[in-house]
Design a protein that fits this description.
Elements (H helix, E strand, L loop, with lengths): L16 H10 L4 H19 L2 E4 L1 H16 L11 E5 L26 H8 L3 E6 L33 H8 L5 E6 L5 H7 L2 E4 L19 E6 L2 H12 L14 E4 L9 H15 L3 E4 L6 H26 L6 H10 L4 H21 L5 E5 L12 E4 L2 E4 H6 L4 H4 L4 E9 L2 E9 L4 H11 L4
Parallel strand pairs: 2-3, 2-4, 7-8, 7-9
Antiparallel strand pairs: 1-3, 4-6, 5-6, 5-12, 9-13, 10-11, 12-13
Family: Belongs to the amidase family.
Pfam family, one: Amidase
GO molecular function: catalytic activity
């Protein structure tokens, strides 16, 4: 298996968690050694990429020593036992400062772990640090945060995408083999696509959000970023608190390619590359579908109303008492959010329920839907306009255009790295039916091999 490489790269670039776990169990590697590799990679690369915002070597190494001691005692806590994992900075950790990317919480240390982090610790994983989030996860570019902008490992003048900006950059560059992110409109899949990693957004509520700072309660999801689908599955199983069920009665797949342009303009070279990757992955099972195009505008508008109303609910007091502490762009988004009326929110909730039913009907005819994860490659940090074909479009709207519908409808969706266009990574998005997380992960693990 060959990988194109950014320069420079850390120890874990392209590495398989399964292979690392096997070495831990044979005794050819210890968790302390692995954790030190992560710390060394972070020390070398983080000044360039700004992926990690909080790292505490003594805390991480203490966890690793405990993991090794348990191995010596004959206790094996599972596939992630002794494996270094990074956590997005909007997810609570009792032993690391957690700022949510905002001056409002500078220096804040939670009193307890988020439930997903607690489950990781119980599985023996080593939490090595916190990764940069766009402030309060309210942005898809990853360049608006208390700690500045995360940088794309393939071109540090470019964005990582967001809001799980640091998590994607940390895995893509090889600082860690796994990271946890959150996704409200695409915030796992967007940076995964732009940085060249696997990123999985589970079905709504399949991973608990307790202890995760909310952005939009009806849209928030927690999920993994990894080098490989199988690694993402292992992390998902831990944070979901259950193992994936085997795929029963396999049948020929029915896969719908979402017609180009259904959710907005797409870079022509990127579209060609991603479609070719989908053809290689699914062969004759792939057929074009235009059924999403009439729904796209309604999906976008409905999500926007829900997200704005719910985001303002979270931040209303902060906006009244200390608006100056918000980064300007985030504050402007919240000022717009304040304008949503109660009747608009109620109608959006009704539309969301109807659109979920429409998607359930559609998935009676398809096993998966596929599209580009993001219709453009990474743009320069701070850029807010990009030319696609003959159009100049908003960068933030562009990167969200093919991901946000699946937050609205709560469907599982995964971004797979399928090569590069003009030297920058691109992603193929595969969407499954509601609750079919296991099938999506297991089928993709069987079929998808990184080129």
């Amino acid at each position: 298996m060959s990988f194109a490489k950014p320069t420079p790269v850390g120890y874990f670039f392209g590495q398989s968690v399964i292979a690392l776990a096997e070495r831990l169990r044979t005794g050819s590697l210890t968790s302390v050694e692995l954790t030190q590799k992560a710390l060394d990679s972070i020390e070398s690369l983080n000044p360039i990429l700004n992926a990690f915002v909080h790292v505490d070597a003594p805390v991480a190494l203490a966890q690793a020593r405990k993991a090794d001691e348990l191995f010596v005692q004959g206790q094996d806590l599972g596939p992630l036992h002794g494996i270094p994992v990074a956590i997005k900075d909007n997810i609570d950790t009792f032993d690391y400062v957690t700022t949510y990317g905002s001056e409002h919480f500078a220096g804040f240390k939670p009193s307890r772990d988020a439930l997903c982090v607690q489950r990781l610790r119980e599985a023996g994983a080593v939490i090595v640090g916190k990764t940069l989030t766009h402030e309060f996860a309210y942005g898809p570019t990853g360049d608006r945060s208390l700690q500045g902008a995360a940088r794309n490992p393939w071109d540090t003048s470019n964005i990582t995408g967001g809001s799980s900006a640091g998590s994607a950059a940390a895995v893509a560059s090889g600082m860690v083999p796994l990271a946890l992110g959150t996704d409200t409109g695409g915030s796992i899949r967007i940076p995964a696509a732009l940085c060249g990693t696997v990123g999985f957004k589970p079905s709504f509520a399949s991973v608990p959000v307790e202890g995760v700072f909310p952005l939009s309660a009806s849209l928030d999801h927690v999920g993994p970023i990894a080098n490989h689908v199988e690694d993402a599955r292992l992390l998902f199983e831990v944070v979901a608190g259950r193992a994936c069920a085997p795929v029963a009665n396999p049948r020929p797949l029915r896969v719908g390619w979402i017609s180009t342009g259904s959710f907005g303009p797409v870079d022509a070279d990127l579209d060609r590359q991603v479609h070719q990757a989908a053809q290689r992955l699914f062969g004759e099972s792939l057929q074009e579908t235009a059924e999403l195009e009439p729904l796209a505008a309604e999906m976008k508008d409905t999500l926007l109303v829900l997200q704005r109303a719910e985001a303002y609910d979270v931040h209303a007091e902060r906006m009244q008492e200390a608006p100056h502490k918000f980064e300007q762009e985030v504050r402007e988004r919240l000022e717009l959010s304040r304008e949503v009326r109660g009747w608009q929110y109620i109608r959006a909730q009704a539309r969301q329920a109807r659109l979920k039913a429409v998607m359930a009907s559609l998935f009676e005819r398809y096993d998966f839907l596929v599209s580009p994860s993001v219709p453009i490659t990474a743009t320069p940090v701070d850029a807010r306009e990009v030319r696609v074909g003959e159009q100049d479009i908003d960068v933030r709207a562009a990167v969200l255009s093919y991901t946000s519908a699946w937050n609205l409808t709560g469907l599982p969706a995964i971004s797979l790295p399928v090569g590069q266009v003009r030297g920058m990574p691109v992603g193929l998005q595969v969407i499954g039916a509601a609750g079919e997380d296991d099938r999506l992960l297991l089928v993709m693990a069987q079929r998808f091999v990184r080129a």
